[in-house]
Write a structure and sequence with these properties.
The chain has 14 helices and eleven strands. With about 425 residues, it is α/β, with parallel strands linked by helices. It is globular, with a radius of gyration of 20 Å. The structure holds nicotinamide-adenine-dinucleotide (NAD). InterPro entries: NAD(P)-bd_dom, NAD(P)-bd_dom_sf, UDP_G4E.
Protein backbone atom coordinates (compact mmCIF):
# COMPACT_ATOMS: atom_id res chain seq x y z
CA UNK A 1 0.00 0.00 0.00
CA UNK A 2 1.28 3.45 -0.79
CA UNK A 3 1.98 6.42 1.30
CA UNK A 4 -0.78 7.99 3.25
CA UNK A 5 -1.36 11.66 3.59
CA UNK A 6 -3.42 13.38 6.20
CA UNK A 7 -5.25 15.51 3.70
CA UNK A 8 -8.55 13.81 4.01
CA UNK A 9 -8.38 13.60 7.74
CA UNK A 10 -11.44 14.77 9.47
CA UNK A 11 -10.72 13.88 13.01
CA UNK A 12 -11.41 15.17 16.42
CA UNK A 13 -8.23 15.11 18.40
CA UNK A 14 -5.96 12.81 20.26
CA UNK A 15 -5.31 12.24 23.86
CA UNK A 16 -2.04 11.05 25.18
CA UNK A 17 -1.46 8.76 28.09
CA UNK A 18 2.02 8.87 29.51
CA UNK A 19 3.59 11.50 31.59
CA UNK A 20 7.29 11.36 30.92
CA UNK A 21 8.03 15.03 31.14
CA UNK A 22 5.34 17.45 31.91
CA UNK A 23 6.86 20.81 31.10
CA UNK A 24 3.75 22.30 29.72
CA UNK A 25 1.23 21.08 32.21
CA UNK A 26 -0.27 23.29 34.86
CA UNK A 27 0.59 20.94 37.63
CA UNK A 28 3.59 22.37 39.38
CA UNK A 29 5.67 25.37 40.06
CA UNK A 30 8.79 23.47 40.92
CA UNK A 31 12.13 24.71 39.69
CA UNK A 32 12.61 22.13 36.98
CA UNK A 33 9.27 23.03 35.54
CA UNK A 34 9.98 26.74 35.45
CA UNK A 35 13.45 26.08 34.05
CA UNK A 36 11.98 24.07 31.26
CA UNK A 37 9.45 26.74 30.61
CA UNK A 38 12.28 29.24 30.37
CA UNK A 39 14.13 26.97 27.99
CA UNK A 40 11.06 26.44 25.94
CA UNK A 41 10.63 30.19 25.64
CA UNK A 42 14.05 30.34 24.02
CA UNK A 43 12.88 28.05 21.31
CA UNK A 44 11.34 30.03 18.54
CA UNK A 45 8.65 27.57 17.68
CA UNK A 46 7.51 27.17 21.25
CA UNK A 47 7.58 30.85 22.14
CA UNK A 48 4.11 31.71 21.05
CA UNK A 49 2.70 28.56 22.51
CA UNK A 50 4.26 29.31 25.85
CA UNK A 51 2.08 32.33 26.30
CA UNK A 52 -0.64 29.96 27.32
CA UNK A 53 -2.01 30.40 30.76
CA UNK A 54 -1.67 27.66 33.26
CA UNK A 55 -5.15 26.49 32.59
CA UNK A 56 -4.33 24.23 29.72
CA UNK A 57 -7.58 22.46 29.88
CA UNK A 58 -9.61 25.57 29.36
CA UNK A 59 -12.26 25.24 26.73
CA UNK A 60 -11.01 27.00 23.60
CA UNK A 61 -13.75 27.41 21.06
CA UNK A 62 -12.53 27.26 17.51
CA UNK A 63 -8.88 27.05 18.41
CA UNK A 64 -6.36 24.79 16.70
CA UNK A 65 -7.95 21.66 15.44
CA UNK A 66 -11.27 22.57 16.86
CA UNK A 67 -10.76 21.34 20.34
CA UNK A 68 -13.49 23.57 21.61
CA UNK A 69 -15.82 22.35 18.92
CA UNK A 70 -14.66 18.79 18.61
CA UNK A 71 -17.69 17.55 16.81
CA UNK A 72 -17.10 19.89 13.93
CA UNK A 73 -15.05 17.32 12.13
CA UNK A 74 -15.09 18.96 8.74
CA UNK A 75 -13.39 22.04 10.03
CA UNK A 76 -10.65 19.84 11.43
CA UNK A 77 -9.77 18.46 8.05
CA UNK A 78 -7.86 21.40 6.67
CA UNK A 79 -6.16 22.00 9.98
CA UNK A 80 -4.89 18.45 10.05
CA UNK A 81 -3.48 19.01 6.59
CA UNK A 82 -1.59 21.91 8.11
CA UNK A 83 -0.20 19.59 10.74
CA UNK A 84 0.96 17.24 8.08
CA UNK A 85 2.74 19.98 6.24
CA UNK A 86 4.47 21.19 9.36
CA UNK A 87 5.16 17.78 10.81
CA UNK A 88 8.79 17.63 9.91
CA UNK A 89 11.07 15.70 12.18
CA UNK A 90 12.27 19.04 13.55
CA UNK A 91 8.83 19.76 14.87
CA UNK A 92 7.96 16.33 16.06
CA UNK A 93 9.27 15.74 19.45
CA UNK A 94 10.15 12.48 20.91
CA UNK A 95 9.00 9.70 23.10
CA UNK A 96 11.52 9.18 25.79
CA UNK A 97 9.70 12.09 27.35
CA UNK A 98 6.50 11.41 25.52
CA UNK A 99 4.13 13.89 26.98
CA UNK A 100 6.34 16.91 26.68
CA UNK A 101 7.25 16.07 23.14
CA UNK A 102 3.76 15.50 22.03
CA UNK A 103 2.45 18.58 23.75
CA UNK A 104 5.18 20.65 22.20
CA UNK A 105 4.37 19.27 18.83
CA UNK A 106 0.74 20.06 19.40
CA UNK A 107 1.65 23.60 20.32
CA UNK A 108 3.95 24.09 17.38
CA UNK A 109 1.28 22.97 15.01
CA UNK A 110 -1.60 24.57 16.85
CA UNK A 111 -2.98 21.10 17.11
CA UNK A 112 -5.27 19.65 19.73
CA UNK A 113 -4.65 19.94 23.40
CA UNK A 114 -3.61 16.53 24.61
CA UNK A 115 -4.89 15.24 27.86
CA UNK A 116 -2.40 13.67 30.18
CA UNK A 117 -2.55 11.41 33.16
CA UNK A 118 -0.28 11.54 36.18
CA UNK A 119 1.58 10.17 38.12
CA UNK A 120 4.86 11.17 36.51
CA UNK A 121 6.63 8.23 38.03
CA UNK A 122 9.69 8.50 35.86
CA UNK A 123 10.32 12.20 35.95
CA UNK A 124 11.81 14.62 38.44
CA UNK A 125 9.73 16.09 41.22
CA UNK A 126 7.13 13.41 40.72
CA UNK A 127 5.78 13.44 44.27
CA UNK A 128 5.39 17.18 44.24
CA UNK A 129 3.59 17.20 40.93
CA UNK A 130 1.41 14.30 41.85
CA UNK A 131 0.41 16.04 45.05
CA UNK A 132 -0.51 19.21 43.20
CA UNK A 133 -2.53 17.31 40.65
CA UNK A 134 -4.50 15.44 43.25
CA UNK A 135 -5.13 18.60 45.24
CA UNK A 136 -6.39 20.42 42.19
CA UNK A 137 -8.59 17.57 41.25
CA UNK A 138 -10.12 16.68 44.57
CA UNK A 139 -13.40 18.17 43.60
CA UNK A 140 -13.54 16.05 40.51
CA UNK A 141 -12.47 12.85 42.20
CA UNK A 142 -13.47 9.60 40.52
CA UNK A 143 -13.37 6.22 42.19
CA UNK A 144 -10.94 4.66 39.77
CA UNK A 145 -7.99 3.46 41.75
CA UNK A 146 -5.58 2.24 39.10
CA UNK A 147 -4.40 4.55 36.50
CA UNK A 148 -5.82 7.84 35.71
CA UNK A 149 -6.45 10.94 37.70
CA UNK A 150 -9.80 12.63 37.64
CA UNK A 151 -8.57 15.40 35.38
CA UNK A 152 -7.89 12.83 32.72
CA UNK A 153 -11.29 11.28 33.11
CA UNK A 154 -13.00 14.63 33.10
CA UNK A 155 -11.31 15.50 29.83
CA UNK A 156 -13.18 12.63 28.29
CA UNK A 157 -16.35 14.18 29.63
CA UNK A 158 -15.61 17.55 28.10
CA UNK A 159 -14.06 16.71 24.76
CA UNK A 160 -14.54 14.27 21.96
CA UNK A 161 -11.31 12.50 21.18
CA UNK A 162 -10.62 10.76 17.93
CA UNK A 163 -7.80 8.61 19.21
CA UNK A 164 -5.60 7.76 22.13
CA UNK A 165 -1.82 7.30 22.04
CA UNK A 166 -0.92 5.22 25.04
CA UNK A 167 2.67 5.75 26.21
CA UNK A 168 2.24 5.31 29.93
CA UNK A 169 4.03 2.33 31.41
CA UNK A 170 6.70 1.14 33.74
CA UNK A 171 9.51 -0.04 31.52
CA UNK A 172 12.63 -1.20 33.35
CA UNK A 173 13.27 -4.85 32.61
CA UNK A 174 15.27 -5.61 35.74
CA UNK A 175 12.85 -3.74 38.00
CA UNK A 176 10.01 -5.72 36.47
CA UNK A 177 11.69 -8.92 37.70
CA UNK A 178 11.77 -7.50 41.23
CA UNK A 179 8.34 -5.88 41.24
CA UNK A 180 6.18 -7.87 38.83
CA UNK A 181 2.90 -6.91 40.49
CA UNK A 182 3.60 -3.21 40.02
CA UNK A 183 4.33 -3.87 36.38
CA UNK A 184 1.20 -5.90 35.76
CA UNK A 185 -0.87 -3.37 37.67
CA UNK A 186 0.37 -0.32 35.78
CA UNK A 187 0.95 -1.78 32.36
CA UNK A 188 -1.91 -4.27 32.14
CA UNK A 189 -4.57 -3.05 34.59
CA UNK A 190 -3.79 0.57 33.75
CA UNK A 191 -4.32 -0.14 30.08
CA UNK A 192 -7.59 -1.90 30.79
CA UNK A 193 -8.70 1.16 32.76
CA UNK A 194 -7.86 3.39 29.86
CA UNK A 195 -9.67 1.12 27.40
CA UNK A 196 -12.73 1.13 29.64
CA UNK A 197 -12.75 4.91 29.70
CA UNK A 198 -12.43 4.87 25.92
CA UNK A 199 -15.30 2.41 25.63
CA UNK A 200 -17.48 4.51 27.92
CA UNK A 201 -16.79 7.46 25.68
CA UNK A 202 -17.00 5.67 22.36
CA UNK A 203 -13.39 6.35 21.37
CA UNK A 204 -12.19 3.58 19.08
CA UNK A 205 -8.75 4.44 17.81
CA UNK A 206 -5.74 3.37 19.80
CA UNK A 207 -2.01 3.71 19.18
CA UNK A 208 -0.10 1.51 21.60
CA UNK A 209 3.54 1.78 22.69
CA UNK A 210 4.51 -1.84 22.34
CA UNK A 211 7.98 -3.25 22.23
CA UNK A 212 10.28 -5.62 20.39
CA UNK A 213 10.31 -7.57 23.66
CA UNK A 214 6.98 -9.16 22.67
CA UNK A 215 8.94 -11.37 20.26
CA UNK A 216 10.82 -12.93 23.18
CA UNK A 217 13.91 -14.90 22.19
CA UNK A 218 14.07 -14.42 18.41
CA UNK A 219 13.48 -17.58 16.41
CA UNK A 220 14.87 -15.86 13.35
CA UNK A 221 16.09 -12.43 12.30
CA UNK A 222 15.11 -9.82 11.33
CA UNK A 223 11.97 -9.76 13.46
CA UNK A 224 8.82 -9.60 11.38
CA UNK A 225 5.37 -8.63 12.64
CA UNK A 226 3.68 -11.93 11.83
CA UNK A 227 6.15 -13.96 13.88
CA UNK A 228 4.89 -15.68 16.98
CA UNK A 229 4.99 -13.47 20.05
CA UNK A 230 4.90 -14.24 23.74
CA UNK A 231 8.00 -16.20 24.59
CA UNK A 232 9.07 -13.23 26.68
CA UNK A 233 12.06 -13.30 28.95
CA UNK A 234 10.86 -10.93 31.69
CA UNK A 235 7.68 -9.54 33.29
CA UNK A 236 7.96 -6.21 31.46
CA UNK A 237 7.93 -8.00 28.11
CA UNK A 238 5.01 -10.14 29.25
CA UNK A 239 2.99 -7.03 30.15
CA UNK A 240 3.45 -5.75 26.61
CA UNK A 241 2.58 -9.14 25.17
CA UNK A 242 -0.50 -9.47 27.39
CA UNK A 243 -1.78 -6.04 26.44
CA UNK A 244 -1.38 -6.91 22.77
CA UNK A 245 -3.47 -10.06 23.37
CA UNK A 246 -6.11 -8.01 25.19
CA UNK A 247 -6.17 -5.56 22.31
CA UNK A 248 -6.59 -8.39 19.79
CA UNK A 249 -9.55 -9.73 21.79
CA UNK A 250 -11.05 -6.28 22.01
CA UNK A 251 -10.76 -5.86 18.25
CA UNK A 252 -12.41 -9.26 17.74
CA UNK A 253 -15.30 -8.30 20.00
CA UNK A 254 -15.75 -4.80 18.57
CA UNK A 255 -15.37 -4.62 14.81
CA UNK A 256 -15.15 -0.84 14.95
CA UNK A 257 -12.12 -0.82 17.24
CA UNK A 258 -8.78 0.01 15.67
CA UNK A 259 -5.34 -0.58 17.16
CA UNK A 260 -1.90 0.08 15.79
CA UNK A 261 0.58 -1.53 18.11
CA UNK A 262 3.93 0.12 17.46
CA UNK A 263 6.66 -2.29 18.42
CA UNK A 264 9.57 -0.03 19.27
CA UNK A 265 13.04 -1.40 19.02
CA UNK A 266 15.57 0.61 21.09
CA UNK A 267 14.67 4.29 21.19
CA UNK A 268 17.61 6.59 21.94
CA UNK A 269 18.74 10.14 21.22
CA UNK A 270 17.30 13.51 22.11
CA UNK A 271 15.77 16.50 20.44
CA UNK A 272 18.43 18.01 18.14
CA UNK A 273 18.12 21.36 19.93
CA UNK A 274 19.76 19.78 22.96
CA UNK A 275 16.88 21.12 25.05
CA UNK A 276 14.80 17.99 25.55
CA UNK A 277 16.22 14.63 26.42
CA UNK A 278 16.12 11.66 28.69
CA UNK A 279 16.61 12.38 32.39
CA UNK A 280 16.24 9.05 34.12
CA UNK A 281 15.61 8.94 37.84
CA UNK A 282 18.53 7.19 39.53
CA UNK A 283 20.77 4.76 37.70
CA UNK A 284 19.87 4.62 34.01
CA UNK A 285 18.43 1.30 32.92
CA UNK A 286 19.35 1.78 29.31
CA UNK A 287 22.68 1.84 27.55
CA UNK A 288 22.67 5.26 25.86
CA UNK A 289 21.77 7.43 28.89
CA UNK A 290 24.31 5.47 30.93
CA UNK A 291 27.04 6.14 28.37
CA UNK A 292 26.00 9.79 28.28
CA UNK A 293 26.32 10.08 32.06
CA UNK A 294 29.78 8.48 31.97
CA UNK A 295 30.85 10.84 29.21
CA UNK A 296 29.81 13.88 31.22
CA UNK A 297 31.56 12.62 34.34
CA UNK A 298 28.46 11.81 36.32
CA UNK A 299 29.28 8.11 36.48
CA UNK A 300 32.73 6.52 36.45
CA UNK A 301 32.34 3.34 34.49
CA UNK A 302 29.89 1.71 32.17
CA UNK A 303 29.19 -1.97 32.82
CA UNK A 304 28.89 -4.04 29.67
CA UNK A 305 26.82 -7.14 30.41
CA UNK A 306 28.58 -10.01 28.69
CA UNK A 307 31.03 -10.27 25.81
CA UNK A 308 30.45 -13.92 25.06
CA UNK A 309 27.31 -13.62 22.95
CA UNK A 310 27.28 -15.03 19.47
CA UNK A 311 27.93 -11.64 17.84
CA UNK A 312 30.97 -10.23 16.01
CA UNK A 313 32.49 -8.66 19.13
CA UNK A 314 30.65 -10.77 21.70
CA UNK A 315 28.46 -7.95 23.05
CA UNK A 316 24.70 -7.75 22.57
CA UNK A 317 23.35 -6.30 19.34
CA UNK A 318 20.26 -4.05 19.22
CA UNK A 319 18.38 -2.01 16.68
CA UNK A 320 18.62 1.58 17.95
CA UNK A 321 16.14 4.11 16.65
CA UNK A 322 16.28 7.89 17.06
CA UNK A 323 13.37 9.24 19.09
CA UNK A 324 12.61 11.84 16.42
CA UNK A 325 12.04 9.04 13.92
CA UNK A 326 9.93 7.24 16.49
CA UNK A 327 7.79 10.34 17.04
CA UNK A 328 7.19 10.67 13.31
CA UNK A 329 6.12 7.02 13.28
CA UNK A 330 3.30 7.82 15.72
CA UNK A 331 1.99 10.70 13.69
CA UNK A 332 2.08 8.59 10.55
CA UNK A 333 0.29 5.78 12.37
CA UNK A 334 -2.53 8.05 13.45
CA UNK A 335 -2.88 9.45 9.95
CA UNK A 336 -2.80 5.97 8.44
CA UNK A 337 -5.42 4.68 10.86
CA UNK A 338 -7.78 7.45 9.89
CA UNK A 339 -7.16 7.69 6.15
CA UNK A 340 -7.43 3.92 5.69
CA UNK A 341 -10.38 3.59 8.01
CA UNK A 342 -8.38 0.88 9.70
CA UNK A 343 -10.17 -1.59 11.95
CA UNK A 344 -8.75 -4.42 13.99
CA UNK A 345 -5.31 -5.04 15.41
CA UNK A 346 -2.23 -4.11 13.42
CA UNK A 347 1.30 -4.53 14.80
CA UNK A 348 4.05 -2.44 13.18
CA UNK A 349 7.77 -2.55 13.93
CA UNK A 350 9.57 0.75 14.36
CA UNK A 351 13.29 0.14 13.97
CA UNK A 352 16.06 0.88 11.50
CA UNK A 353 16.65 -2.73 10.50
CA UNK A 354 20.30 -2.46 11.47
CA UNK A 355 21.90 -3.78 14.64
CA UNK A 356 24.77 -2.24 16.61
CA UNK A 357 26.74 -3.97 19.33
CA UNK A 358 27.31 -2.36 22.71
CA UNK A 359 30.95 -1.75 21.83
CA UNK A 360 29.98 -0.14 18.53
CA UNK A 361 27.64 2.22 20.36
CA UNK A 362 30.39 3.10 22.84
CA UNK A 363 32.81 3.89 20.02
CA UNK A 364 30.21 5.95 18.13
CA UNK A 365 29.56 7.95 21.28
CA UNK A 366 33.27 8.51 21.83
CA UNK A 367 33.47 9.86 18.29
CA UNK A 368 30.49 12.19 18.81
CA UNK A 369 31.60 13.52 22.18
CA UNK A 370 35.36 13.41 21.83
CA UNK A 371 35.38 11.77 25.29
CA UNK A 372 36.75 8.40 26.24
CA UNK A 373 34.15 6.10 27.78
CA UNK A 374 35.52 3.93 30.56
CA UNK A 375 33.84 0.54 30.54
CA UNK A 376 34.16 -2.83 32.18
CA UNK A 377 32.91 -6.19 30.93
CA UNK A 378 30.83 -7.99 33.55
CA UNK A 379 28.56 -11.07 33.63
CA UNK A 380 25.60 -11.34 31.31
CA UNK A 381 22.39 -9.85 32.68
CA UNK A 382 19.49 -12.27 33.17
CA UNK A 383 16.74 -11.81 30.62
CA UNK A 384 18.98 -10.26 27.93
CA UNK A 385 18.96 -11.75 24.47
CA UNK A 386 21.88 -11.77 22.12
CA UNK A 387 20.64 -10.01 18.98
CA UNK A 388 17.50 -8.12 18.02
CA UNK A 389 16.74 -6.07 14.94
CA UNK A 390 13.64 -5.25 12.98
CA UNK A 391 12.24 -5.85 9.60
CA UNK A 392 10.74 -2.39 9.20
CA UNK A 393 9.26 -2.89 5.75
CA UNK A 394 5.61 -2.71 6.87
CA UNK A 395 6.19 0.71 8.44
CA UNK A 396 7.97 1.69 5.29
CA UNK A 397 5.33 0.47 2.82
CA UNK A 398 2.16 1.17 4.74
CA UNK A 399 2.96 4.18 6.89
CA UNK A 400 5.42 5.62 4.38
CA UNK A 401 7.83 5.79 7.30
CA UNK A 402 11.52 5.24 7.24
CA UNK A 403 14.17 5.90 9.88
CA UNK A 404 16.15 8.91 8.72
CA UNK A 405 18.74 9.15 11.47
CA UNK A 406 21.77 6.98 11.99
CA UNK A 407 23.89 6.04 14.98
CA UNK A 408 26.05 9.17 14.61
CA UNK A 409 22.92 11.36 14.82
CA UNK A 410 21.70 9.42 17.85
CA UNK A 411 25.00 9.88 19.67
CA UNK A 412 25.44 13.53 18.68
CA UNK A 413 21.96 14.51 19.85
CA UNK A 414 22.29 12.57 23.09
CA UNK A 415 25.65 14.18 23.72
CA UNK A 416 24.29 17.64 22.98
CA UNK A 417 21.47 17.12 25.49
CA UNK A 418 23.77 15.68 28.15
CA UNK A 419 26.42 18.33 27.69
CA UNK A 420 23.87 21.15 27.90
CA UNK A 421 22.09 19.52 30.84
CA UNK A 422 24.58 17.51 32.87
CA UNK A 423 22.04 17.25 35.69
CA UNK A 424 19.10 16.73 33.41
CA UNK A 425 16.15 19.00 34.14
CA UNK A 426 17.45 19.78 37.61
CA UNK A 427 19.84 22.46 36.33
N1 LIG B 1 12.37 3.42 25.95
C1 LIG B 1 12.35 2.21 25.45
O1 LIG B 1 13.40 1.58 25.28
C2 LIG B 1 11.06 1.56 25.04
C3 LIG B 1 11.08 0.45 24.17
C4 LIG B 1 9.89 -0.14 23.81
C5 LIG B 1 8.70 0.37 24.29
N2 LIG B 1 8.70 1.44 25.13
C6 LIG B 1 7.42 1.91 25.63
O2 LIG B 1 7.28 3.27 25.30
C7 LIG B 1 6.45 3.91 26.26
C8 LIG B 1 7.14 5.16 26.70
O3 LIG B 1 8.35 4.78 27.31
P1 LIG B 1 9.54 5.77 27.61
O4 LIG B 1 10.79 5.13 27.15
O5 LIG B 1 9.19 7.12 27.11
O6 LIG B 1 9.56 5.69 29.18
P2 LIG B 1 9.25 6.76 30.28
O7 LIG B 1 9.44 6.06 31.59
O8 LIG B 1 10.02 8.00 30.02
O9 LIG B 1 7.72 7.08 30.02
C9 LIG B 1 6.65 6.35 30.54
C10 LIG B 1 5.79 7.31 31.30
O10 LIG B 1 4.65 6.62 31.80
C11 LIG B 1 4.34 7.21 33.03
N3 LIG B 1 3.54 6.33 33.86
C12 LIG B 1 3.95 5.22 34.50
N4 LIG B 1 2.93 4.69 35.19
C13 LIG B 1 1.85 5.46 34.97
C14 LIG B 1 0.49 5.43 35.37
N5 LIG B 1 0.04 4.47 36.18
N6 LIG B 1 -0.33 6.40 34.96
C15 LIG B 1 0.12 7.36 34.15
N7 LIG B 1 1.38 7.45 33.73
C16 LIG B 1 2.24 6.52 34.12
C17 LIG B 1 5.68 7.44 33.67
O11 LIG B 1 5.60 8.45 34.65
C18 LIG B 1 6.53 7.86 32.51
O12 LIG B 1 6.58 9.25 32.46
C19 LIG B 1 6.23 2.89 27.38
O13 LIG B 1 4.97 2.32 27.19
C20 LIG B 1 7.32 1.86 27.14
O14 LIG B 1 6.96 0.60 27.62
C21 LIG B 1 9.85 2.07 25.49
Amino acid sequence: MEATTGRSLAAGHSTISGSGEMTHLPVGRDRSLSKRRTDAKKRGAARAANNDTDDRYREAEGEGLGLGSPRDRDSCSSKLSQIEKTSTPQLLLALLAPSEHTITKRRQTQGPRPSLPAPFSNSPSSAQRKEIVSREDDADAAPRSLGFPPRFLSNFKHYTFHSVIHFAALKAVSESCQKPLEYYKTNVSGTINLLEVMRENNVKHFIYSSSATVYGVPQQLPLVEDMKTGNCTNPYGRTKFMVEEILKDLCTSDKEFSVISLRYFNPVGAHPSGQIGEDPNGIPNNLMPYIAQVSVGKRDTLYVYGNDYDTPDGTGVRDYIHIMDLAVGHVKAIIYQKTHNLKGFKPINLGTGKGYSVLEVIHAFEKASGKKISYKIVERRPGDISVSYADASIANKELNWVATKNMDDMCLDTWKWQQNNPNGYKN
